[in-house]
From TrEMBL:
The chain crosses the membrane at residues 44-61, 73-94. It comes from the Bacteria. Residues 140-167 form a coiled coil. It holds the Pfam family DUF1003. The keyword Glycoprotein does not apply. This is Putative membrane protein. Keywords: Coiled coil, Membrane, Transmembrane, Transmembrane helix.
Length: 171
């Protein structure tokens, strides 16, 4: 049996089901962060001080018939309490989002550090292998020395052969 379509007005709504409006949690989070950021500025504190000062001034110096919040400022207390009751969760939500971003950034930093460490270890092994290979490779000075020694040996051998050849000719 199929469920009745919800967009039809001729079908009854299931009893006991409350349909809450849908909202984007990411958009709400961005909005709460912007409010929390604004509430953490000097501009907000200055505006808040001006509003509270104007409230005090109006409700103490205006004619009694125009005052809307007499001396104990009960309505101001209610407004500030309401503001605080909304500000605290918004600030906590913004902090939670910042903590999540920090955690993701830390994980990314950890991943990059591990990759850099692996790259550094690989390069160190390659440099060590090159040093070992260079130790086995003849340097220019070594080749020159060996060639000079071989040339001397050849000269000596040629001189001995020439001496032997002269001796053989004399004999």
């Amino acid at each position: 049996m199929s469920e009745p379509r919800r967009d039809r007005l001729d079908q009854p709504v299931e009893p006991g089901r409350v349909r809450l409006p849908r909202f984007d949690p990411e958009a709400f989070g961005r909005w709460s962060e912007s409010i929390a950021r604004y509430m953490g500025t000097a501009k907000f504190i200055v505006y808040m001080t001006v509003v509270i000062g104007a409230w005090f001034a109006w409700n103490t110096m205006a004619p009694k018939s125009l005052r809307f919040d007499p001396y104990t400022f009960t309505f101001l207390t209610l407004v500030l309490s309401l503001q605080a009751s909304y500000a605290a969760p918004l600030i906590l939500l913004a902090q939670n989002r910042q903590t999540d971003r920090d955690r993701l950034a830390m994980e990314e930093d950890r991943r990059r550090a591990a990759m850099q460490k692996a790259d550094t270890e690989y390069l160190a092994r390659e440099i060590a292998a090159l040093r070992i290979a260079l130790g086995e490779v003849a340097t220019r000075d070594f080749v020159r020395t060996e060639l000079a020694r071989l040339a001397d040996e050849l000269d000596e051998a040629a001189a001995r052969r020439a001496k032997l050849d002269r001796r053989d000719q004399d004999a």
